Amino acid sequence: MSRKPCCVGEGLKKGAWTTEEDKKLISYIHDHGEGGWRDIPQKAGLKRCGKSCRLRWTNYLKPEIKRGEFSSEEEQIIIMLHASRGNKWSVIARHLPRRTDNEIKNYWNTHLKKKLIDQGIDPLTHKPLAPNTNPTVTTSPENFHSLDAPSSDKQYSRSSSMPSLSRPPSSSFNTLSSNDGTPVQEDGSLSCKKRFKKSNSTSRLLNKVAAKATSMKEALSASMEGTLSANTSFPCGFSEQIRNEEDSSNINTLAEFDTFLQSSLYPEHEMNTTSDLSIDQDYDFSHFLENFGRDDDHNEEHNMSVEYGHDLLMSDVSQEVSSTSVDDQDNTIEGWSNYLLDHADFIHDMDSDSLGKHLI
DNA sequence: AACAGTCTCAACCGCCTCGAG
DNA sequence: TCTCGAGGCGGTTGAGACTGT
User: Distance of CA A352 to CAs A173, A216, A321, A322, Å?
Assistant: First the structure.
């Protein structure tokens, strides 16, 4: 049994709205407010279905809607959120005041997808495109700066020259903890290079989430296999790693970002990747964020976006942590990874015991 | 100027969610 | 618990604008 189509009424008009229709709709909503869309056409004297009225209002006529060019700041936010949320246009729109999901969706499909492809990035997975699909790309990290300046000669592809130390911690990578909780290598060296810009709050947060997500993923893997035990380590004291940043240069940032996303959001991909699992390096978001928005003409804008990026992530946490239960999440590692990204601070404040209780 | 190809984005379609009864 | 309908959402379409020849 199929649902009856919404707009099947006799004589209902379709297609582009006229100025006259717009005036009628605006006037009616001004007088009576939004809602009750089913009755609005009749009451407003419109030969449209209610759904069409609602869409016209929410996507076009609403006074607070911002139209026109997207700023580089907005572009960055869209891409960041798309990388973590996918085609959740309404979710993305919530972080871009006065932009509609429809407008963002259109902008993604007509502009941002192309820009990413020009940069050698798969817009679907946010991973570097396969080299043979983008033969003109260069391997020089400095060629990737900003999507504001897409150009066929500034493209990127992963290559053997790419520093493989950008790999985030993997489930097969054994970490120990120092006294302060900082993960250390078996050889005693710090497993997480000190590589953050102190001023970059978004980088710090994202790195924190990355570390937590990876640890959670290990725990979840163990839990699902029935092997979760007291030996499962949860790196703590992550803030200690946010101290130095000298050795954080010249890494291809977007590849790192993509690699992290793949490992945290799509763990099944990581399971199939064994080439550089032993590399001792966490993912460094600060490079991504620094280079991603680099544009000599828009430095202030970029700084704003970094701060806003932090704010929007934090607002996500505060808004959702109280309303989303663990049970709501997919019972998969992928679901948990997404959950972690959504609840960075919540997870950050958990100790391993309470974490284990949540898992069982 | 005329035409063809490409791009943009408003609007539509159909499925999903959720609350009311 | 079930059904129904309003509203929400993401994918897709197509008319008009734009660009190149």
Answer: 19, 10, 19, 21
Q: Write out residues whose CB is closer than 7 A to strand B.
A: A 2-3, 5-7, 13-17, 48, 51-52, 55-56, 59-60, 67, 102-103, 105-107, 109-111, 114
- End-of-domain residue from the set A61, A77, A92: A61
Domain boundary among A61, A94, A117: A61
CATH code assigned at A40: 1.10.10
Strand B: which positions are within 7 A of a protein CB?
Answer: 7-16
- Number of domain units in chain A: 2
Q: How far is the CA of A109 from the C1' of B6 (A)?
A: 15
Q: Which nucleotide is nearest to A40 (CA to C1')?
A: C6
Residue A352's domain comprises 164-359
Are both A53 and A198 inside the same structural domain? no
CB A56 within 8 A of CB A17: yes
Footprint of strand C on the protein (CB under 7 A): A 6, 15-16, 35-38, 50-51, 54-55, 58, 87-91, 101-102, 105-106, 109
CB A155 within 8 A of CB A287: no
> What nucleotides of chain C have any atom within 7 angstroms of a protein Cβ?
5-12, 15-16
Name the strand (E) or helix (H) holding A290: helix A285-292
pLDDT along chain A (360 residues), means of 10: 47 86 89 85 88 89 85 88 86 87 88 84 80 41 36 30 28 30 31 29 40 44 39 30 30 38 36 29 36 38 44 44 36 39 39 37
Residues A336 and A219 in one domain: yes
Query: What is the torsional sign of CA A353, A269, A247, A142?
Result: negative
| Same domain flag for A187 and A327 | yes
The pTM for the full model equals 0.51
How far apart CA A340 and CA A345 sit, in angstroms, is 9
Residues A343, A201 within the same domain: yes
Q: Is residue A48 domain-shared with residue A176, that is, in the same domain?
A: no
